[in-house]
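Researcher: We plan to redesign the surface later, but first we want a full-length starting point. Tokens attached.
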């Protein structure tokens, strides 16, 4: 069995003493273990290597959160980075099925679970979205496959296109289209033929069907247990046919889900659904955090670090709030604010949430603030000396010039920042005088 990554890492980090920030060496040591864990989870070598390099860059120098070990912290960073790679569309489960009847093309190798998945998705569309679905099997080489779809259709109460002997896949696809239009169906699903391996004929057939059907979605079904093979299959299908998403089946098995990471990293195609069993309900929308947890095998640590970080952020925010209410709002505070804004999705989002700042959020928006500007402002503050940050009022012309030059910006940019700082400081003071009760009431308005 796999050795748990957390066990490995705790072994490594027990020997290290805790410092303020993760050192290059700490991170390297931890990531060596992470790489092994990824390979054991079936992630391909180049993907694991790239991934680890990226995390190395992110993690080094990151402040170590109180009450967790550096090892735990690295796991959290790795986990977040995994999610970053895995997540594709914002809503992977939403199929493009407007303009009825919408064709969905199902492709994949024989035995990948294509026919089962076609029926599972049809059932989902029918039950969750109230859609009328027609399914058609194009597997003219294997009459048993056509029968299988008809049986599944019966079982889930979804219509299948009647089987007509002697038709080729393109003819069947055309008939499905006509039938779907005439019959008032919202969606028609074309279950193409599979082979044991990709060959020219299979691809040519799928391409011909694609050209007549003009599918809104082309979903590639791959067996999640086949690891690297699954990735090769996906690359080839995508090159030749073009797919809009991947369904990973057999994720109920004891595979570690590494194929998902390789798949996403190599093909760039979003994983839309995962198959979790043979039953018709055993399909779910792809959730990156679940797969990330599974690849690492350590969801508990992630939750622990998240909690610790939340607590620390809340403490910091409260301390800052208290000082600000007393009118002590210096450049360090502003920088912290700016960094939080960056994290929370930009200035508008943040200000919109703060009491009394709705109007300012508008101004900020009109002034064209975005992440780039936030980063520039942070750079300006970073160019200041400690004393300047604590007392921005001492900034006269020569200091301003130095700071602007040091961060590659203009004095006018710095002046804008200082003006914003003053305005925010005034507002904080006002809020301080108002008192908490009144502030809350204002916020509720
Ligand atoms: P096709 O040749 O690609 O159409 O594959 P089928 O749909 O016929 O599936 C092959 C076998 O895999 C069947 O026995 C299915 O019940 C099974 N199967 C499909 N999806 C899953 C899944 O997500 N989990 C498990 N455990 N079995 C699956």
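Model: Full-length starting sequence:
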């Amino acid at each position: 069995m796999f050795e748990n990554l957390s066990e490995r890492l705790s072994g490594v980090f027990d020997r290290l003493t805790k410092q303020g920030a993760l050192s290059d060496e700490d991170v390297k040591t931890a990531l060596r273990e992470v790489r092994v864990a990824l390979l054991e989870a079936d992630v391909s070598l180049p993907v694991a290597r790239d991934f680890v390099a990226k995390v190395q860059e992110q993690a080094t120098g990151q402040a170590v959160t109180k009450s967790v070990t550096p090892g735990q912290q690295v796991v959290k960073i790795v986990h977040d980075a995994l999610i970053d790679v895995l997540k594709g569309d914002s809503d992977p489960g939403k199929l493009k099925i407007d303009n009825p009847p919408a064709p969905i093309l199902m492709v994949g190798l024989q035995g990948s679970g294509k026919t089962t998945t076609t029926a599972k998705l049809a059932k989902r569309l029918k039950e969750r979205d109230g859609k009328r679905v027609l399914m058609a099997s194009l597997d003219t080489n294997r009459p048993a496959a056509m029968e299988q779809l008809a049986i599944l259709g019966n079982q889930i109460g979804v219509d299948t296109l009647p089987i007509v002997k002697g038709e080729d896949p393109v003819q069947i696809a055309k008939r499905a289209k006509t039938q779907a239009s005439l019959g008032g169906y919202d969606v028609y699903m074309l279950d193409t033929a599979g082979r044991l391996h990709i060959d020219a004929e299979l691809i040519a057939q799928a391409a011909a069907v694609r050209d007549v059907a003009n599918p809104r979605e082309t979903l590639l079904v791959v067996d999640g247990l086949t690891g690297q093979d699954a990735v090769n299959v996906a690359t080839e299908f995508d090159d030749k046919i073009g797919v809009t998403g991947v369904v990973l089946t057999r994720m109920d098995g004891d595979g570690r889900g590494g194929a998902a990471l390789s798949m996403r990293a190599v093909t760039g195609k979003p994983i839309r659904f995962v198959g979790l069993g043979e039953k018709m309900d055993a399909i779910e929308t792809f959730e990156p955090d679940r797969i990330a947890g599974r690849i690492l095998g350590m969801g508990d640590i992630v939750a622990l670090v998240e909690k610790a970080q939340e607590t620390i952020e809340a403490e910091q925010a409260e301390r800052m709030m208290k000082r600000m209410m007393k009118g002590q709002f210096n450049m360090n505070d502003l920088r912290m604010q700016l960094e939080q804004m960056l994290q929370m999705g930009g200035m508008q989002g943040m200000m919109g949430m703060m009491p009394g700042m709705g109007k300012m959020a508008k101004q900020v928006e009109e002034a064209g603030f975005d992440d780039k500007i936030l980063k520039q402002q942070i750079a300006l503050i970073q160019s200041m000396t400690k004393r300047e940050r604590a007392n921005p009022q001492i900034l006269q012309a020569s200091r301003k010039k130095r700071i602007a030059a040091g961060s590659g910006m203009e004095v006018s940019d710095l002046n804008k920042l200082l003006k914003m700082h003053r305005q925010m400081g005034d507002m904080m003071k006002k809020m301080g005088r108002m008192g908490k009760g009144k502030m809350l009431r204002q916020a509720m308005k």
